[in-house]
Specification:
Mean pLDDT: 92
Structural class: alpha/beta
CATH superfamily: Vaccinia Virus protein VP39
Largest sheet: 7 strands, mixed
Number of helices: 8
Helix content: 25-40%
Strand order of the largest sheet: 3-2-1-4-5-7-6
Distance between the termini: 34 Å
Order of helices and strands: HHEHEHEHEHEHHEE
Shape: globular
Radius of gyration: 16 Å
Number of strands: 7
Strand content: 15-25%
Length: 206
């Protein structure tokens, strides 16, 4: 599947896309929740950074020492490479599908936080990629629309994403629970990359 000109003009044209128009609010939330837990975010990755707005806002607030930015779209990779803000950071930009990305190095030296915002609805074979996600980072900022989310967006906004796989909440929950503990809204803690937990409160661990 191609994520080049047609995808961006059809999906983003005139729409308020979560993680783009409200990227600053997402970034504020990420900064606050990890500051509250006193977990330092030094290394981050963005898997499927797209327009790059969420990555930019997170970088502004966390000031990471290292950033990995990966996207399957050559158009978006080229656009990010031209952004002036990236010059402030130690950033590696990779043009690759996450399915094909060689994660061996990151499995040996995981990042603190990986952003995966509205990516997995475009991946056909989901479980191996969720397992890979859990193997490269302590925490993930993860979102994916479910089948009911797409029905709501179609009914309320007239929005249909013809590029995505529409899957149930139960489908994602079953797979995610194998590899992650859900800590809070959009925040997952890896079961594969472990030290002691910075989020020990039992009530929120599921």
């Amino acid at each position: 599947m191609s994520f080049e000109k047609n995808y961006w003009s059809e999906i983003y044209a005139g729409r308020f896309i979560d993680g783009t128009f409200n990227a600053a609010k997402h970034a504020d939330y990420i900064r606050c929740i990890f500051s509250l837990s006193e977990f330092p975010i030094r290394k981050i990755a963005d898997i499927g950074f797209g327009k790059g707005k969420l990555l930019e806002e997170v970088a502004k607030r966390l000031h990471p020492e290292q950033i990995l930015a990966l996207d399957t779209s050559r158009l978006m990779v080229d656009a990010l490479q031209k952004k002036s803000w990236i010059g402030k950071y130690n950033i590696g930009i990779v043009h690759s599908k996450f399915e094909e990305f060689n994660s061996d190095y990151l499995q040996k030296f995981p990042v603190d936080l990986v952003i995966a915002n509205s990516v997995f609805q475009y991946i056909e074979d989901v479980e191996p990629c969720i397992k890979k996600l859990a193997s490269i980072a302590r925490f993930s900022y993860f979102s994916v629309p479910t089948k009911n989310d797409y029905l709501r967006m179609e009914n309320e906004l007239g929005f249909i994403d013809k590029y995505a796989f529409s899957r149930t909440k139960e489908f994602y929950t079953k797979i995610l629970s194998k590899y992650f503990t859900r800590i809070s809204f959009n925040v997952l803690e890896s079961k594969l990359v472990r030290e002691h937990s910075y989020f020990p409160a039992e009530l929120y661990r599921e």
